[in-house]
Design brief:
This protein is an all-beta fold. The chain has strands at about 5, 10-15, 20-25, 35-40, 45-50, 60, 70-75, 80-85, 90-100, 115, 120-125.
């Protein structure tokens, strides 16, 4: 079965950095987009960053541009999100997602992704 395991979340002060990791198992996903979403209490799940099947194209939400970097290692079925200069408004549960089989490009809509991890908590204190 397909499983996505996120790790690397935690508590950090404003201005600090974290790197979250998504390790996929149970399949190969080199032809699919991978993305990170986040959800804060009382809010809808929102797109954060995505990377296309080959890793040559990336897309970021305006709120994280210049601070976050998404990358992937297809040989390891793994995606990463490097988060720098964190702000309290970045506090959320961060979810890894893998796109649909026929779509290798990045989309911001949750409905365009087939698999989801359980999420990892990122808390940024002021």
């Amino acid at each position: 079965q397909v499983q996505l395991a996120e790790s690397g979340g935690g508590l950090v002060q404003a201005g600090g950095s974290l790197r979250v990791t998504c390790a996929a198992s149970g399949g190969t996903f080199s032809s699919r987009a991978m993305a990170w979403f986040r959800q804060a209490p009382g809010k809808e799940r929102q797109f954060v960053a995505g990377i296309n099947w080959s890793g040559v194209a990336t897309v970021y939400a305006d709120s994280v541009k210049g601070r976050f970097t998404i990358s992937r290692d297809n040989a390891k079925n793994t995606a990463y999100l490097q988060m720098n200069n964190l702000k309290p408004e970045d506090t959320a549960v961060y979810y890894c997602a893998i796109g649909q089989s026929y779509y290798g490009s990045v989309y911001s809509q949750t409905r365009m992704y087939d698999y989801w991890g359980q999420g990892t908590q990122v808390t940024v204190s002021s």
